[in-house]
Design brief:
The chain has 497 residues and is α/β, with parallel strands linked by helices. 44% of the residues lie in helices and 12% in strands. It is globular and about 80 Å long.
Amino acid sequence: MAMLLRKVWGSVLARAAAAAGLPGGQAAAAPGSPRGRRAQQQGAGAEQYYCGVALSLGALDALPTDVLAQILRLLGPVDAARSATVCRAWRILASDNGLWAFFLRLGPEPWDLVVFAETHLAAGPDWHPWLYYNNLPQLSFKQIYTDRAMVPGTVIVDGGSGYCKYGWSKYAAPSGCCATFLEFGNIESPMYARLRHFFSTIYTRMQVKPSSQPVIVVLPLCHTDDTESARASRKQYKETLYSVLFDMNVPAVCAVDQAVLSLYASKRTSGIVVHIGFNTTSIVPIFEGRVMYEIGVETVGQGALKLTGFLKELMHQRNITCESLYTVRTIKEKLCYVAADYEAELRKDTQASCEVDGEGWFTLSEERFKTAEVLFQPHMGGMRAMGLHKAVSLCMDHCYNSDVVGDDSWYRTVVLAGGSSCLPGLPERLEKELRQLLPPYISEGIRVLPPSFGTDSAWFGAKMVSNVSTFTEAWCVKKKQFRQKTRRNGPLFVNAW
């Protein structure tokens, strides 16, 4: 096969070189050749033949068009692009959308994520598709392939709520983790100093100069109220973030909310994200990539740490001793689940065991599902808080009564995020509880989706954004832009990004 392709490609290049010596650089096409027929079918397209003539490829004219297309697939994207310079016939074949879609499918990114990113994210965070009748532009996969190949590798920093994950946008997963910026430096130190220490540590660990690559920062959920004070706090944090990174000579910065990126990872731009964080659980309504603070972000005062602590209490009641919370967390991840029906689950034999490296074997029974039940019945853990299903239903009710323009079913998709949201059975249980709580005109069509990438959904959402073909132009703030807008508009400019 390799020898055949070399002969074919050598013949193509030879014919192209011969054509270069002809007057006008063109030669007549063989009458009735497949390329001649294909040229006539192109109509008035940009790649049509001029007067129906094209370069003849000699004996290759007898090959069907689909065989030539298969040859281009086997040659690969580089040689396929080179073939476009041979003649108009090859240019049409080499520009075929299906060919470049094939090459994109062979790439490291899942095909469905590439299509979603290029249709919904390429225009940047301020694009509002409901303003247009046709919100899915015609894609040129050849141009997308070329542009994505030119996008530089980006440093991704996922601030997180329990710990930070960082890595390269071209890698398959985060390359490391560390404490969040809140744990850096003295708590009484200025935010600028703590952020500077935080990012300096990450760049040191990644062994990269800040000036060499753009950075995308995943903003943790904080100050979620729709008040002047909360808006000022969010603005101050974002403004300080840009100042720190540009003072470190980072060439371009993109900062996106954690919940928004988790939603992107599920291939959606609108919905409700239920983020079970380290200390709290946030229910975040998002419409076309924007957090709807005016509708209301619900916060429940329990998160992953509470679940782990509750499991430790249950284990202690059965004289199962374990001093390390890390070990308890490992047991939770291996054995715990969410019961579809709590009362029915109490009557079942649910005993199971797991091994923790360096700690031995642990056997649990009712503790396996009682741990997660505290999400729906907080009083079991001694908490006076709203159950998860009630908080989500309250958010949905607020969305239903809001004045959002567009599809009125946008809030019926619930996307789970955060490490503890990976517990088996949680999507099904939450969906069941919501259907029982909400009236039919709200609950009809509700779907609760598990995290698309497990504990790393926000990181993969950032990876999706940082690899989009228009990333640096549509999503990033440059240092010059930052300085100019600071001088012109003052600190309030940050609200635009």
